[in-house]
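FORM 7B: Structural annotation worksheet

SECTION A. Query
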Amino acid sequence: MLSWDDFVYVKAIADSKSLVGAAQSLGVDHSTVWRRLKQIENDLRSRLFNRSKSGYTLTPCGEDMVRLADGIAEDITAFERRTAGQDVRPSGELRITTNDMVLLHLLTDVLAGFRRAYPEITLDIIVSNTLLNLSKRDADVAIRATYQETRSLTGRCISPIAWAVFGANSFDGMRFDLLTDPVRHTWVAFADDTALARPARWLNEHGVDESRIVYKVNTLLGIAEAVANKIGLALLPCYIGEATPGIARLSPPLPELEGQLWIVVHPDLKRSGRVGAFLDFCEAEIVKRCASMCHSPPAESTL
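SECTION B. Predicted structure
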């Protein structure tokens, strides 16, 4: 009779394609994995892996076993998720994923306030720029910028994200003319145009060609730091630009660049006490903070 642990060992070897990698992921010795695999293959009277210089590759029998393991793991996760969703108490652990810029400039104060309001809820924050799988409970709640709700998930658009032109503090108090000034200055831009298509398109439409883009970096935090060091002007979300020392907003909010901040949760968890408490608290606090940003126009003197 196979046990669930047998499936776990085989899947670990398949994922890492080596006994050493499987041992590391399972937290056991290399020899333990080797003995366990040998015992499973003897019990099944079938080879599960082909061994070669490139590593361990699945045989047809091994593929069947891993496919079954994946299905069992999904069923277990779904059961855990449904069970967690039925807990109406605002207590326990809550896993939240977001990216570094949202955490640093917007969310940490909100999370601190939430902990004071709900001391029985422990927060586990996962900083990642990738979209973690909420269905597999890599996280319970995701806070991220997006423009449409994912069908299999439940989300709230909690706030618009205003963008504007920012420059070093030496420009503070000067008005940025959107018609004439873009081509007069050097710019800092995001390294991947496809990742942030709207700012790249805005620069292009305002006559900023590649010769005026003198510095590229693949994080918005890096862009803000470059602006503070007087490398050039940049388009930034207001919650980042206005929180970064050494830089000033030079334009009103630009409606064509406005984004949205969403809180996303799996439907099975939305009735959970800790998730519901977090959604309500977080929405109210973030709306309050975002509403205070980018409303007052910069001074009217010429840049």
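SECTION C. Observations
The chain has nine helices and 14 strands. The longest helix spans residues 60-85.

SECTION D. Sign-off
Analyst initials: ____
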